[in-house]
């Protein structure tokens, strides 16, 4: 059985004071113990967020990572730096990074290697655009993204990975994929991993769904065969909504 994982992607929201307050309130809640709970604040909040979450069930993740250890990369943050302050997870290749900041399957792969090098737990995002879904090439897009992200990654690293299936048209739009479509896509990703590695790895890798997850649809989405939790944007910013999703 794969343990569910529900991660809040706060994007460019919440300052450090708000992040700490949220984590303090979240950890005081009666949270579902069957679920790994992660919050991903902005880089500037991470040291205080890690401190606030220490010793609790709430884990902290970053929203990006650079592939180099250090060097002349103005504005970037390395895996070594994230590890040093006690960050546990890192989101890689979110569609907003792909859309607005030139992220490619190749840079996703480089960032994934850096995360693994520093023993961070990666959440690798993939997902199709609306045009791609309408053109009937969702699986082709997912296949390319998954193969690109996992290039030269060892089987045991993939088994411990989290992949987030996030159809771009469902992110921040209020339009959630049906649980059937979302599960089909997650199942397809698992099949792809099985073809690349083996059944054992495919059965271990956790695959989240992301895209307008709410307390009202979490139960249906997470009670499917292949969806192992969610990557939650908007609804993760509100304490009660996020708590209800975790306790789906
Ligand atoms: P959303 O964002 O829940 O606001 O749609 C999800 C995400 O971008 O990870």
Tell me what you see in this structure:
- The chain is of the alpha/beta class.
- The chain has helices spanning 16-27, 46-53, 79-84, 95-100, 105-117, 130-134, 138-149, 155-159, 179-196, 199-204, 215-222, 239-246; strands at 4-9, 35-40, 58-62, 89-92, 121-126, 162-165, 206-210, 229-232.
- It has an eight-stranded parallel beta barrel, surrounded by seven helices.
- The model has no long low-confidence stretch (mean pLDDT 97).
- Bound molecules: 2-phosphoglycolic acid (PGA).
- Residues 9, 166, 171-172, 210-213, 231-235 line the site of 2-phosphoglycolic acid (PGA).
Quick synopsis:
The chain has 248 residues and is α/β, with parallel strands linked by helices. The protein has 12 helices and 8 strands. 2-phosphoglycolic acid is lined by residues 9, 166, 171-172, 210-213, 231-235.
């Amino acid at each position: 059985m794969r343990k569910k994982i529900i991660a809040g992607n706060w994007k460019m929201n919440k300052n450090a004071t708000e992040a700490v307050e949220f984590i303090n309130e979240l950890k005081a809640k009666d949270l579902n113990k069957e679920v790994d709970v992660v919050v991903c604040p902005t880089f500037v909040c991470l040291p205080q967020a890690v401190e606030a979450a220490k010793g609790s069930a709430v884990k902290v993740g970053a929203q990006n990572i650079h592939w180099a250890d250090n060097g002349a990369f103005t504005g970037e943050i390395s895996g070594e730096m994230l590890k040093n302050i006690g960050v546990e997870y890192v989101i890689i290749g979110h569609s907003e990074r792909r859309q607005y900041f030139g992220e490619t399957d190749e840079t996703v792969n480089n960032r994934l290697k850096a995360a693994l090098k520093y023993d961070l737990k990666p959440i690798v995002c993939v997902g199709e655009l609306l045009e791609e879904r309408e053109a009937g090439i969702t699986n082709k897009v997912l296949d390319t993204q998954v193969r690109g992200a996992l290039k030269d990654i060892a089987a045991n690293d993939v088994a411990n990975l989290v992949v987030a299936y996030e159809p771009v048209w469902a992110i921040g739009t209020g339009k959630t994929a049906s649980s059937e479509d979302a599960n089909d896509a997650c199942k397809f990703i698992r099949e792809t991993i099985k073809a690349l590695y083996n059944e054992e790895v495919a059965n271990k890798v956790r695959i989240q769904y992301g895209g307008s997850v709410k307390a009202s649809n979490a139960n249906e989405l997470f009670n499917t065969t292949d969806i192992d939790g969610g990557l939650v944007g908007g609804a993760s910013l509100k304490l009660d909504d996020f708590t209800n999703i975790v306790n789906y």
